[in-house]
Amino acid sequence: MVELNILDTEQKNERTKNIDILSTLEVLKLMNDEDKKVAYAVENELENIQKAVDITYEKMAAGGRLIYSGCGTSGRLGILDAVECPPTFGTDPELVQALIAGGMMAFVKAVEGAEDNQELGAEDLKAIGFSEKDILVGIAASGRTPYVVGAVSYAKSIGAKTISLTCCTNSTLNSLTDVSITLQTGPEVITGSTRLKSGTAQKMVLNMLSTSVMIKLGKVYGNLMVDLKATNEKLVERAVMIVRTITEADDFTVRQTLEACDFSAKTAIVMLKCNLTAAKAEEAINKARGHISNIISL
């Protein structure tokens, strides 16, 4: 039996105990006041987030993958972060992946009992060929979800590095992982509803983790997403804007250059700044391990 009363995320918030009889504006103000605490909870964990970024970068720079494991809201947040990496940073969809208890169907509809299956957490990792080269982030607000504990335990058993992202102190997950990020956001507005402050805090950390790693991998130049994939009209125009901003070339030249390199903003930038063909620009980028700051300067 799960002892909910001992979990930080299940404590009653005295400030919201009468929320059911408040006016709409009073409810909103109360929720907004509680949400203001989230950024401070994240700030308190910056040193651990830094450790997580650094070991994730080390693994990914050596050819490993970043894998998220979670259930319910935590699992869905992992999916949201993973699916944004290819269009934003031009990564292969396999590089950052998210596993959720119950499979992808659980993203839109709860799969009862899946999160209680510890063996399933390990089996889902095995199914994607998870190895010691990869890194696992176990996401669970309570820090005790069996599915995630099973995934982390398996990852550790094969020598992989692990990170936990929880909102409860002294949790099972915290005791298992190489790096523990514990977001002390306090009792939820609605008791136990971790899609609120806990979920917001987890989303902020996932944003920080993946974005910081991608910056270190050379996916960003200045503060521009030079590896974006121009897969729709908006992203095509963003690619044009990025190349034009960095090279100061005219619109026609930028579009012509992008067309010559399959709309790779990074390649187009090096072509224009260094007067190279697409092939030579890509060769230079590969030699620089993707960091065009080693080829050109702002």
From TrEMBL:
It catalyses: N-acetyl-D-muramate 6-phosphate + H2O = N-acetyl-D-glucosamine 6-phosphate + (R)-lactate. GO terms for biological process: amino sugar catabolic process; N-acetylmuramic acid catabolic process; peptidoglycan turnover. Its EC number is 4.2.1.126. The keyword DNA repair does not apply. The active site is at E84, E115. Pfam families: GKRP_SIS_N. Residues 56-219 form the SIS domain. CDD domains: SIS_Etherase (cd05007). Keywords: Carbohydrate metabolism, Lyase. GO terms for molecular function: carbohydrate derivative binding; carbon-oxygen lyase activity; ether hydrolase activity. Pathway: Amino-sugar metabolism; 1,6-anhydro-N-acetylmuramate degradation; Amino-sugar metabolism; N-acetylmuramate degradation; Cell wall biogenesis. Specifically catalyzes the cleavage of the D-lactyl ether substituent of MurNAc 6-phosphate, producing GlcNAc 6-phosphate and D-lactate. A lyase-type mechanism (elimination/hydration) is suggested for the cleavage of the lactyl ether bond of MurNAc 6-phosphate, with the formation of an alpha,beta-unsaturated aldehyde intermediate with (E)-stereochemistry, followed by the syn addition of water to give product. Homodimer. NCBIfam families: N-acetylmuramic acid 6-phosphate etherase (TIGR00274), PRK05441.1 (NF003915), PRK12570.1 (NF009222). Belongs to the GCKR-like family. MurNAc-6-P etherase subfamily. This is N-acetylmuramic acid 6-phosphate etherase. It comes from Lachnoclostridium phytofermentans.
